[in-house]
Amino acid sequence: MEFEVVKQDTQSQARAGLLTTVHGQVPTPAFMPVGTRGVVRTLSQKELEEAGVRLLLCNTYHLWLRPGPGVIQKAGGLHRFIGWDRPILTDSGGYQIFSLAQLNKVSEQGAAFQSHIDGSYHVFTPERVVEIEHALGADIIMPLDQCIAYPCTYEEAREASMLTIRWAERSLKRHRELGEEKSIGCHPALFGIVQGSVYPELRQNNAGQLLAMDFPGYAIGGLSVGEPKSLMYEMLEAVLPLLPADRPRYLMGIGYPEDLVECVALGVDMFDCVIPTRNGRNGMVFTSSGRLVLRNAQYAQDFSPIDPECQCYACQNYTRAYIRHLFQVEEMLGLRLASLHNVYFFMKLMEQMREAIRKGSFQRWRQEFKNKYNTAYPGGNDRESFQ
Amino acid sequence: MEFEVVKQDTQSQARAGLLTTVHGQVPTPAFMPVGTRGVVRTLSQKELEEAGVRLLLCNTYHLWLRPGPGVIQKAGGLHRFIGWDRPILTDSGGYQIFSLAQLNKVSEQGAAFQSHIDGSYHVFTPERVVEIEHALGADIIMPLDQCIAYPCTYEEAREASMLTIRWAERSLKRHRELGEEKSIGCHPALFGIVQGSVYPELRQNNAGQLLAMDFPGYAIGGLSVGEPKSLMYEMLEAVLPLLPADRPRYLMGIGYPEDLVECVALGVDMFDCVIPTRNGRNGMVFTSSGRLVLRNAQYAQDFSPIDPECQCYACQNYTRAYIRHLFQVEEMLGLRLASLHNVYFFMKLMEQMREAIRKGSFQRWRQEFKNKYNTAYPGGNDRESFQ
Fold this sequence. Notes:
2 copies of one chain form a homodimer.
Chain A: E1 2-8, E2 15-21, E3 24-28, E4 30-33, H1 45-51, E5 56-59, H2 60-65, H3 69-75, H4 78-82, E6 88-91, H5 94-99, E7 102-106, E8 111-114, E9 121-124, H6 126-136, E10 140-141, H7 154-181, E11 189-190, E12 192-194, H8 200-213, E13 218-220, H9 229-239, E14 249-251, H10 257-265, E15 270-273, H11 275-281, E16 284-287, E17 290-293, H12 313-317, H13 320-328, H14 332-359, H15 362-372
Parallel strand pairs in A: 4-15, 5-6, 6-10, 10-11, 12-13, 13-14, 14-15
Antiparallel strand pairs in A: 1-2, 2-3, 7-8, 8-9, 16-17
Helix pairs in contact in A: 1-14, 6-7, 7-8, 8-9, 10-14, 10-15, 11-14, 13-14, 14-15
């Protein structure tokens, strides 16, 4: 993987970049829809491509349990198995072990857990996770980390973040060994993940230790897990300036459109979140002037599209009234159209930001977005967890 | 509506024809996917068009309850409401009142029933149903009929079929009045429905009385409701020869591919059935060499497409193993791909039959189909009822 900053904004930390992988290029700032089980819920791969998705997130934990890495390897890797030939990033499963599975024990060695599906016992070690991710054939892979809940004490956060660092070292070691075993050049990129809960000192310390290991990209994890939004921004402001300008910065599990804009301004390059699809399935859609809940009675006879400014298939062909009807009668096409529109909206939002940064007009664009977009909606933890 | 027989097969009763409506032409024999609530379950209108669907069935009963005819009229009619500009046929709701709603009373006047959704009280009279269907703006409309269960006595069947005839007369009268009220030429075509359960004499008597009323098309209803398949064919052989050659013949609620082929050979021009979508949602797919159940473990590592001979999006882009995985992890894309493939398969089957009839090779095609296609699957009642 290569990363190049194409344009640095002069009035903010925002930058436009280009990630290059063997499966193609990804202009940044980029948003990844979440394809936990090898599919972005309700959508087809063709629809993702048409929406402009260039990088897809899949989840090691879920794919490990079903269909299992053996099936995916026999299929010729994850790209072939799911019919997606653009880049894929795999999350390590750390977050899911701690939020979803029945956790049996975290030790220095790794995390022992029971499957949330059938109760079967599994052990994820940092080495094992990297091995699985190599076997899946992802382009960017994340190491196992210990995610802790909010709130937690300084001491809890310190211990977890130090364990995460030791795991990162082991992940990197195994990753390099695997790279040396390979004859072909499809070596994935392993990112480091900064943890440290809401303690700036821990976050900064954590970042410093990861930097010493020289990862090709850095993620910030363990945010948007229930903490006040002001604390999330405090952490970003503590960590982002420490990260090297020539490496991509990935903020995990964020966010709402207004958060994406602010975080891009702080210098984040990559995002993932289930919001466009999960909220879509609940009937919430994002428009250029804010959010609306299609299930509401006020849309029963509203024959305008979700967003008159949108060029997606849903907006070009269907009305709010029809999509609301689909939700009322529990027809899946409603979930599809709302999800499709939201993914399209998020991809267009990122495209607009990339273009504004390249043109040197990001600050003006950001102000116009704020003026138009109504942000009066509560945030929360929007990473794929309770499914 | 106009109907023209383009080619009559010389070795069977099969014929290729052309239905012309204000919303476009429909080559026959034609299969209609069922879009009960204004949507074919899991599929988009674009996907239906791409699969070659030319005529869509929607249901008066369901649309009456939700969203209600007022919303649809305000949208500018059913075509506009659902974003479908090809022809639409509306079923009357008779079948649903008797199978789905809590039926309170059938009288000479009509059928009083309680909604299966909220228990609200409604009365459908033959006149009211025709009025609703005119308001929806369908191209072909079906009159209210009394559907009775199988088995039933001769006397029960006789009374129901006679009431259906009297209702057909009233439907036709109201339909003609509405046509005279209209200034523009989008008058729908009202078909007659032959009932009479499994009693050939009743069926033939019923057909004779409908013929005297001179409908532009004739449907055969009340079959595939649990009777042995041999009885269904006995009824078809009793009724079809009586129907005029220059009018389309519509067999309601049928069927499996093997039934479609046999019924086309008997001279049926139109079909509708939920099988492609309902069975698809259950993981059953149709292929040129028979049916298969994708959920089965045998497909877990089968990296071939559903049907190697099929050109649909599912077969061109995904494997059985991946679609099985989607079913295993309960991802909607699995239901979508199976439904999409099945609708495509049914449309291609009809296209093949139309082409074979036009070329004069239908009997040979039919034999080849039988040799290749495994028909060892139990039939049953496959009209959209228990949802």
